[in-house]
Amino acid sequence: MKRLSLYLFLIFFTLPTPSQADDIRDFQIEGISVGDSLLDYFSEEEIKNNYVKWYDDDKFIRAEFKKLKFFKTYGSVGLSYKTNDKKYIIHSLSGIIFFNENIDSCYKKMDELDKELSHLFKDAKKVGPSIMKYDEKYGDSNSKQIFYDFKDGAAAALECIDWAPNMKPWTDNLSVSLDSKEFRKWLREQ
Predict the structure, then answer these.
(1) Higher pLDDT, 4 or 146
(2) Cβ-count burial of 53 within 10 angstroms (0-12 exposed, 13-18 middle, 19+ buried)?
(3) In terms of C-beta density within 10 A (0-12 exposed, 13-18 middle, 19 or more buried), how is residue 104 classed?
(4) pLDDT for the residue numbered 22
(5) Does a structural domain hold residue 16?
(6) How many domains does the chain contain in total?
(7) What share of the chain is helix, strand, coil (3-state, %, to 5)?
(8) 67 found inside a domain
């Protein structure tokens, strides 16, 4: 009987459940996940030195790191955490891959990541791809976007931005974003 109980325990608690298999934390950007502590990757001084004023509200702070030695895929990584959180828990994570005036390569990489995310996040509601045209301020720039909405309120997004020639020094890029439920709720309330 004890052996049967042990088998049942192992079966029920080691098989992934839908909530475990469809979690925003299952995807990493440069080995970093939503829910990790920034202190596992950077010193407090490095975090503070890479602060950028990104949000009007001060509930969350954003730090951006560019072209670090351990970055293998992304040219820039942005991370958001709560203002007074001494553990620096990541609530939003994004990575940018630059495609110097090569939007077709951006779309190709986006398709690869879409397949990976669609496989990883089977229960997420996928929206897109859709095209968004920017206003006159950004010339003929536009973006192709795909969103993944999770049942728990978290979200992921892929976005290829095709910058107009008059927008230099900005260059075509792919952004991969992951947001916790709390961060997404806060964004919607802005």
Answers:
(1) 146
(2) exposed
(3) exposed
(4) 65
(5) no
(6) 1
(7) 35, 30, 35
(8) yes
DSSP 119-154: HHTTTSEEEEEEEEE--GGGTT-EEEEEEEE-TTS-
> Which tokens belong to 168?
């230099």
Residue 117 phi, psi (nearest 5): -70, -40
ω into 16 cis (within 30 of 0): no
CB 76 within 8 A of CB 113: no
More confident residue, 183 or 137: 183
Query: Range of 85's domain?
Result: 22-189
pLDDT digits (tens, 9 = 90+) for 83-139: 999 999 999 999 999 998 899 999 999 999 999 999 989 999 999 999 999 888 888
Instruction: Provide the whole-model pTM.
Output: 0.82
Mean of pLDDT values over 177-182: 96
> Is there a domain that residue 4 lies in?
no
Q: Does residue 157 fall inside a structural domain?
A: yes
Rounded CA gap, 106 and 172, in Å?
A: 7
